[in-house]
Design a protein that fits this description.
alpha/beta, two-stranded antiparallel ribbon, globular
């Protein structure tokens, strides 16, 4: 038993990684723990001993893995909830055996997060030295020949983004204060993620974009595919959080996914009715969150069976991001679509009560 709320991918799936490493007789790029073929098998699963970590087109994963085997960095681009962070973590775990070399991009991210900082107590007492230097995750990845992850790249200020240009083009990180540099060891690369809803926040310069190979992660193509993704993740989260066993039928999962897809695309499943879309993204990740919260409600405050009343409040909270315009969209959808579905009457009443 572990007291860690969320284990790193390389720890949580250590057994699967060991199985693949043992059977992996294919060529491994320098510094890689597994061959590209085995990394892809780890990500997509093999239908037997290896569980799928990402459900989507195989070619997307193959292109991402092949990119990391070259000298080009990888940019995972997509709308929120398309598993960009999830995929980057598992790619780093399979390739380097370490997914923790992470830079989280925010408006307040400083250049030291990409390059290096200083232990100012030692700097003042000893002057500039390697001992006084505090390496960034990127610097550590370069020195150790591992994968560094940069999350939400477009949320970082442009001058901080551009600190990556020398790292990606020259594979070196200068330390002018010491008249030294850190050269990247074999196996080093960078996986960055960006939300394409954030275009215009801090757009990547053309110089930086050229140094990435961009892979766009799509939303699930079909409702069945999205239901499968949501079902798997809800089950995994329930077990990791040790939630009490709950009767979670596919009916409620399918209903939440249907609502999200219809509002996202602006048309009902049968294509007959157009509906307004709210301001939020209504991503697969949000559907997972709604259902996980519903399971907790059913387990702790209900009869142990996931019912419409357990997910209604969560759906309303996900849809209504703008309290004025989104509330109108949600009410209209309830009255024109949900109310007309005979087998959704309980869900309609629960949503009306929650709203």
């Amino acid at each position: 038993m572990t007291t860690v709320l969320r284990a790193h991918a390389e720890d949580q799936y250590a057994e699967e990684l060991a199985i693949l490493a043992k059977d992996d007789d294919r060529v491994r790029p320098p510094g890689w723990k597994l061959s590209p073929w085995a990394v892809t098998a780890y990500i997509l699963g093999d239908g037997d001993r290896i569980t799928p970590k990402y459900i989507g087109p195989r070619r997307i994963v193959e292109v991402a893995v092949a990119t990391l085997a070259t000298d080009r960095a990888l940019l995972l681009l997509g709308v929120p909830g398309t598993a960009k962070t999830w995929l980057s973590e598992h790619l780093a775990a399979a390739i380097s055996g370490d997914s923790t070399l992470l830079v989280q991009g925010t408006a307040g991210t400083a250049e030291e997060a990409i390059r290096y900082g200083w232990n100012y107590a030692r700097l003042l007492s000893e002057g500039p030295s390697r001992q006084a230097l505090t390496p960034s995750p990127v610097m550590r990845a370069m020195a150790e020949g591992r994968i560094a992850r940069v999350e939400e790249l477009t949320r970082m200020p442009s001058d901080v983004q551009d600190a990556l240009i020398t790292v990606l083009s020259e594979k070196t990180l200068p330390i002018p204060e010491l008249n030294e540099e850190v050269q990247a060891s074999r196996g080093f690369n960078i996986i960055a993620t960006a939300n394409d809803r954030d275009r215009g926040v801090n757009d990547l310069s053309s110089a930086l974009r050229r140094r990435f190979n961009t892979v766009v992660l799509p939303v699930p193509a079909t409702a069945e595919e999205e239901v499968d993704i949501v079902s798997r993740r809800v089950d995994q989260l329930g077990r990791s959080l040790e939630l009490p066993q709950t009767m979670t039928g596919l009916e409620e999962i399918r209903r939440v996914v249907t609502v999200f897809r219809e509002l996202r695309t602006g048309v009902t499943e049968d294509g007959r009715t157009k509906v307004k879309s709210p301001s939020g993204t209504l991503s697969t990740a949000e559907a997972i969150s709604v259902l996980t919260n519903g399971i907790a409600l059913a387990a702790h405050f209900g009869d142990g069976v996931l019912r419409p009343s357990d997910v209604a409040a969560g759906i309303a909270g996900a849809v209504i991001q703008d309290p004025v315009s989104d509330r109108v969209v949600w009410r209209e959808y309830l009255e024109t679509v949900v109310r007309e579905r005979q087998d959704w009457r309980d869900f309609y009443r629960a949503c009306r009560d929650a709203g």
